[in-house]
Amino acid sequence: LEIPGFETFVADNGRRAMEIFDLNPGAIQLIVADIHTPEMNGIALLMHIRKTSKVPVILMTGEQQLNVEEIKKLGANEVAVKPFSTRKITEIVQQCLGTIKPGSMAA
Questions:
Q1: What is the largest CA-CA distance in the chain?
Q2: Which of 10, 17, 19, 100 can pair with 94 through a Cys bridge, CB separation 3.0 to 4.6 Å?
Q3: Which residue, 75, 98, 77, 102, is CA-closest to 88?
Q4: Is 79 a residue whose pLDDT tops 60?
Q5: pLDDT band at 25; cut points 50, 70, 90
Q6: Pairing of β 78-81 and β 57-61
Q7: Distance of alpha carbon 42 from alpha carbon 17, whole angstroms
Q8: Cα–Cα distance between 36 and 88 in angstroms, integer?
C-alpha cells in the first residue's frame, strides 16, 4: 500500500513492525497490519503502539467471526475484514488520515 506523499515502511512480521515503529518515533502517521503475523500478532503490536502513541492503526483479518468492536476497544481505529476492495481499504486509510469524511466514498 503506497500513498503519494508518504513514505511506506514494510515489515514481514509483527516484531519487525514494532522495531520499525520504535526506531521512527513521530515519523509514522498510520499503521496497517494483519492480525495474524509471524513472531508477534497484530493485537500485540497494537497494544505495544498504544503504550506510547495514538497513531491510527488499521488491523486486517480474514476471520469473519472476529469481534471487531472488542479489537476497537483495544485501540484499533479500524478493522478491515478480508476480502475487501481496493476502494474500501483506500476509504479506510483516508478516513484514518483525516483526508475524507466517513462514508463519503461508497465501497
A1: 37
A2: 100
A3: 102
A4: yes
A5: confident
A6: parallel
A7: 9
A8: 20
